[in-house]
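Troubleshooting: if your tokenizer reports a length mismatch, compare against these two reference records.
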Amino acid sequence: MSFWKTKTLGEMSTTEWESLCDNCGKCCLHKLEDEDTGKIAFTSLACELLDLASCRCTRYSERTALIPDCLDLQKPGFREFHWLPSTCAYRLLSEGKDLPDWHPLVTGKSDSTATAGMSVSGFAMTAEADDDPEDYVIDGLN
């Protein structure tokens, strides 16, 4: 049986944990939170460290030092999975759901996220200093 069906997130090895990431890049998009409702809105503006073609962080091991707002999912006590997109494996598993059919761990293909049209590579852009994130809000990611 697949490890993600038998282990909790906290029981997973580092290798298992890292393999859950489908490289969609959605978590690297700038987000806005409605102060009244707590609803999270994703924008098409990506972190400067995101490689828009591969949807992978270019400085993964040092990302949290370079980008103070970067979410460190492995930080002890981290439970803020609601900030992640609804298709994210970490969020899905924390909610007791299974991985989607297009996830690389399910398909056995590393490019299945992009092939399924689930990555940000087709629409994300690197944010510029003068960009107003509210002008780039997109629907359907959360």
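Reference record two:
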Amino acid sequence: MSALTPLREAADRIDRRTPVHRDRAVDGLRALALLAVPTGHWLLGGFTLDAEGGLHNASPLSAFAALAPASWVLQMLGIFFLVGGYASVLSYHRRTGSTGAWLKGRMVRLGRPVLGVTAVWALAAPALYAAGVPEATVRTGATLVVQPLWFVGVYAGVTALTPYCVRAARRFGGWAAAPLLGAVAAVDLLRYGPLADSVPSWLSVLNILPGWLFAYQLGVAWGERRIGRRGAWLLLAGGALLFAALLVVFGYPASMVGVPGAGRTNAHPPSLLVLALAAAQSGAAILLRERLAGLLARPALWAPVVVVNLSAMTILCWHQTAMLAAAVPGALAGEVAGLTTAPDTLGWIAARAAWLPVFAVLLVGIARYARRFEAAPARGRGAPAVRRTVAGLLAAGFAAFALGLA
């Protein structure tokens, strides 16, 4: 018997248990967007060591601006929101209870894993400090852990707007997303245009909701069958042209992620460049749907997609912890190539690539235990009220501490 036989049997078993109506292409797109998050953070995030052995955040993009196009590929949150909108509208139509009950269920599924990771880190951070880990390392770790969690809050917000998105999609189709694009363009014009010096810095926050609701609204319209191939080609071509114009003519930063020390950023909150990329990605995703569904009809390709989707929030919440699980002990040994050395040489890039499998293995190990936060408790076996309260207080305390470092 081949060593791969058990894996083939497991893949066949997953394939047989998959409902016929399951949209494999949408699940595949979600898995792709999910895996891009840790890959991007692991590749485009690094550390430096101070004199006391403390870790500080750094990025190879500070030294290698030519790496910016890599962020165009790794920034796939547009796809995630697109697929989220598509899946939400289907779930919304299948609901058996009230809209409030449907929304509560989705909020609980999003919130439980976040509560888990923040509560665990609320206990781990002081324990690490007491064990002699430098304060700078603890602070850096807290910042990295809470960094991806902004997404959950934004995603919860746009999910709450699903009923309104459905109405807009039924009336205007894919064009329902156009005003959101216009709103972000207007804010960008104010903060980067001739009046930029007189505009308050908080104005950029106005881009958060329309910026991420844009792709979600496209996904809702797609789920309502209001975007076909013609609309998809328009999104792909229009998004690509707008993206190029913003880079070449209007001087937007090329990186889709924040670069330490940079005066402008396309992320947090999203700029118009993020929406242009999301439009192009959304068009491409819709056009490639059938081809992707055909590929995922193969059990060997479908099984990993199922595993990733079942662990979606675990991957999102714990991937930075996996990297820190290697970097914190590595810092005790001093400068370790690709791990705790400054990300400012080509050698660092090659060494960091070699660390990616290590981070992935650590994430799998962590996920074996962290998955319990994502899995719904058995009926009648929910956590006691006291335990939920304590976890909530720990999570809130850690979140306040981490956000205070930003």
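Descriptive notes for reference record two:
- Residues 43-405 form one domain.
- The chain has one domain: 43-405.
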